[in-house]
Structures are given as C-alpha cells and as structure tokens.
Amino acid sequence: MSKKKVLTITMNPSLDVGSEAEDVITDEKTRCEEPVYDPGGGGINVARVLTRLGVEADALLIAGGHTGNKLIEMLEEESIRIHTIRSRQDTRQNIAIIDNSAGKQYRFVFPGRVPDESVWIKVLDQIRQSISAYDYVVASGSLPEGVPDDLYSRIGKVATDAGKKFVIDTYGEALMKGIRSGAYFIKPNKEEFEDLKELFGVSTDKDLLDKMFKSGIEQVVQTFGKEKTVLHTPERSYEFIPPTIKPRSTIGAGDSFVGGMIAGLVNGLSRDKAVCYGISAAASTLLSEGTDLCDKDEVERIYLENYGE
Ligand SMILES: Nc1ncnc2c1ncn2[C@@H]1O[C@H](COP(=O)(O)OP(=O)(O)OP(=O)(O)O)[C@@H](O)[C@H]1O
Ligand SMILES: [Mg+2]
To answer: What is the pLDDT of residues 79-97, one digit of tens each?
Structure first.
C-alpha cells in the first residue's frame, strides 16, 4: 500500500435508492422491485475508488438522521475510512428507477437540506486540524444550499497553504470560486468547461485556460465522455482516447476518473500515464453492473492493454 494519503470532502452526500419497474406510469402507482441502497456523493465515491485501487483515503462527510446512519453503516461495511460531521438535518436521498419496458432510467436528484452554519464551519476546522496527515485533498460534488459558494475556495486555500495538492470536481459558481485559490488539477466535463467560459467572461478555450493557469491551476483535465480526454498544462495540450467499450451503467465514471488519476500519481506514474490510469478506472466502472464501481484487476488490465508501454 502506498504511503501517500488522500482526504476527500463530501458536503452534500446522499443515500442513493435504486429500483426497477416493468413500466413507469403517470398518475397511478408504479410498483417497484425491492430497493437497493448505495452511498452517494462525489468525495465519497472518489474515496471508495481510491480504496479499491489500494490507496489510503479518508472520506470527510456530513451526515444526519436515519438516512445518514444508513450511509455511514454502508461505508463502514465497505471498510471506507470516514470522518463524519453530524448535522441536525437528514442526509438526502436520490432515487433512480429503471423502466424495464422502455430500457430507460429515471434519476431524481434532490437538493441537500440546508445545514446549520456550525456544520460547515466544523468541516473547515476539521480539515485545518488534520491537513498535515494528507498529500492530496479532493473536493468533489455539489454544495448544499446555505453553504457559502466559496467554501471549496476556502478549503483549497487551507490545502495549498499547507503545501498539499488540491483537486476539485464540481460545477458552476462553486467550481469557478474554487479555482481562485489554485488547484493541482480540475476535471470539468464538456458542459462544465463551457459554463466556466461564461462565468469567467471569456469566449475561447485558450482565454479560459490562460485565466485558470494564471490563478494557479496546474492541470486541466477536460473529459468528453467516450470521445476523448484532454490534458491541458501551461506548456501543452494532449489528447487521450478512451478504450471502446459497451457501458453497462454510467454512474460514477467521473469520480472513478478522479480516483484513478490520483491513484496513478500516488503510485508514481507520469501525469500523462496517470490520466490513462484514470480513463481505465472510469472504463472499469462503466463496465460494472448498476452502481458498482471499478475493480483493480480490471483497471490494470484495461490500462496495460490500451496504454501500456
Ligand atoms: N462510453 C464511454 N466509453 C469509455 N469511457 C467513457 C465513456 N463515457 C465516459 N467515459 C470515461 O468516463 C470518464 C468521465 O468522463 P465524462 O466526460 O463522462 O465525465 P462526467 O460527465 O464528469 O462524468 P459524471 O457524470 O460521472 O460526473 C472519462 O475518463 C471518460 O474516459
Ligand atoms: Mg462529473
């Protein structure tokens, strides 16, 4: 096991509920199968992926109520190391229902409940107190209502001031502000990148990248789903092509990329090869059934077959 340690932050976790029905109908009851529960939330998934890939990761998360208890229980069962900040507000649930006759999935995503101010202050305090134990800090996923939208920027400042590598994967204002304190890498998808152009008031990719590198971002990994992944550094931009696969489910691909890329870096790969390792982790997750994440042996196999020397 690698000695480098990663802290992931999840401000808006969820207890994901999945089920299926023959037909999803309107105005009447849709009878569903037994529900399946999964832990949800960007940082939580990144920590789960890192743990599967043999990297030491701690997940810092907010949890409340019986849904929060269930979430914690599931993470403990999976041997994920967690640090919980308790909230008086229940952890949200997100619901995914497969309509078997149409072969489609409906995903209902709820906003997180507004946490008391003391909760997000405790998160910041906890990060400040424990920062020396980590090499990477990953802020991933949405911020719940009521939490200041510069929170990721504040977390980033704590991390970078302590000489740690900060990674951020979110969208909109939280991402734009998070970028202000610099980051080791960010991973916007196509839409998130376009939104950033608007938020930064620029019209070309080059102007946006210049602005981001000026604010201290070291690498921008732009993902385009199955099409390509582009690594931008201040010196150059380089394209990588994901392997051709038949995805079984798209849940967790982005988080698997982030976990995979960090695992690659922690294990001494160059940054180009670490991007390939991230792409391989995402592919493995896409090949897994339902909400399951990547498998280390499969990640290694995909990596060697597609990107090995
Ligand atoms: N059909 C596919 N085949 C192979 N790889 C894919 C496919 N779709 C996505 N990926 C991989 O998934 C990763 C995430 O890319 P994507 O652009 O989908 O990010 P995202 O939209 O942020 O994902 P998420 O919705 O999970 O947050 C990339 O590493 C990409 O290579
Ligand atoms: Mg994403």
So the answer is: 999 999 999 999 999 999 9
